[in-house]
Amino acid sequence: MAISWGYSPKTEKYIPLGDFPADKYLIIARQAIENLGWKLSHISSNGLIAYTGLSWQSYSEEISLRIESNFAVVKSECVGLQMWFNDYGKNKQNLAKFFHEFAYVEFHLKDIWEESLAQFHSFVLNQDNDYFEKAPLAVKNKIKNVLYLFWPQKGYLATPIITWLNIFYFGFTFICTVIYFRYFFAKATVVDPALVVQKLEQLLLNLGANNRKLVLNGQYWRLISYQFMHASLLHLFFNLYALLYLGLMIENKLGWRKFVFIYFFSGICGGLVSIIFHQEEILMGASGAIMGLYGAFIALLLNKAYEKNANKALLVSTLIVMILVLINGWFGRRTDNACHLGGVIAGFVSCCFLYVKPMNSSRIWARYAATCVIGLAFAAGVIGFSPRYQHEEFKKLSIEYAKNADAFNRVMTLKASLSKAEKIVFIEENGLAPSRSNLELVKKMKKLKLDKEDLFELDFKAQVAQQSYAVAQLMKKDIESENYSYRKQVNEQMNKLIIFSATARDSLRKAD
């Protein structure tokens, strides 16, 4: 099976016509396409366009035939976004079927040429000879090689500029990261992995990554800057792959101004949805904005912005890809599906306001204003009603708590050879003092605004601190007594504490 590879997989054949009339070639081709069950969308004296049925392998293909300088250029090209950059052999199979059927039709039409020619010329008189410049894949046809994807041109201006901005900022981020870590660890003999992660997170925040606490504290510019940041070359590649495809398909329909507006509007809304569901994570990537373009594409397709046969093929292929992205986000550990969903909805809604009837009968400034009002209302709701969780303060207190807990564990090393007074001092310093300190820390923690996960942890810490203090008190009483009458209670309380520490987190969650 011959497979076509590329950004937009296709197979193309140049057929020299010689003395064969172009109109006869088109008549035969039209009948061959109808015999194969493909949907004819356009035919004129310049050529024709048709679409194959839907396929699990590559959704649908556009079959085009153009008459150029005494040549018939016959092409089969994948309509939708192709996984793994190939057509699974469908395009070559389509052309093989076409030429086989062409020979069959040519033989059977030989006796009725005059009648067929008269009907054809009468029909094409009212057809649009410029349709090829308006077809769904018209802009893709201008992409002669992969380098053309990055070059601004008519109907495809904003997409390559946004692409270059993403590439340049990724390069800038990479250079900053290399320089920063070479400087920071230049004299380090031992590198602590936890410290590396901490420093990297701080660097990414300095470069503009999205973060709930910082946005809620007024750094709203992060809702734009995060869209140009990517975690890896692979992350950047797949986002730009989708961006370039969507730009080719919809920028010429929307116009570059609407395209840019929808892109950033979707990215901002996706970032806002993201901070609703992520408390302290560092968030970055253009996927929210790109998913917004998918939403805009769906809005165009549902409102039949393209010729009906192309519209159906594009709608199916786009929905399949979008659903796959969302499924991957659902199961992916580091994929921000909240941002994806927010972007899709924002892109769909904004496209409806800016393009789709009956909204497009209103003045353009009014449509932009209405979209901005909706976006501002949503942003105000997120920023105004999202609780400001004090996770960092809780984390700092938790570090002190952990130090006290480690100190308390030393009571297990109490030596029998110590005198009674020394034992009491040991219990005071290593049992009562750290557990008493943890009870005070718990009181401070309870004054903080915490999310559900931190509240679980706080409940656990509070009970451990109380039980630890109770154990330390019993141990002191046991030592102070002359006959160690509290020894049994100490052992029971200590076993209870050990069991609780090992199992409590899960049981607290189940109880909730």
Topology:
Layout: E1 10-16, H1 22-36, E2 39-44, E3 47-51, E4 61-68, E5 71-78, H2 90-108, H3 113-124, H4 138-141, H5 158-184, H6 193-206, H7 212-216, H8 222-225, H9 233-254, H10 256-277, H11 287-302, H12 308-331, H13 337-354, H14 364-385, H15 391-408, H16 420-446, H17 452-480, H18 487-511
Antiparallel strand pairs: 1-5, 2-3, 3-4, 4-5
Helix pairs in contact: 1-2, 5-9, 9-10, 9-11, 10-11, 10-13, 10-14, 11-12, 11-13, 13-14, 15-16, 15-17, 16-17, 17-18
Structure description:
This protein has 512 residues and is an alpha+beta fold. The chain has three domains: 10-135, TATA-Binding Protein; 158-385, Up-down Bundle (Rhomboid-like fold); 391-511. It is 63% helix and 7% strand. It contains 18 helices and five strands. A five-stranded antiparallel sheet has the order 1-5-4-3-2, sandwiched between helices. Strand 4 (61-68) and strand 5 form a beta hairpin. The radius of gyration is 34 Å and the shape is elongated. The mean pLDDT is 85.
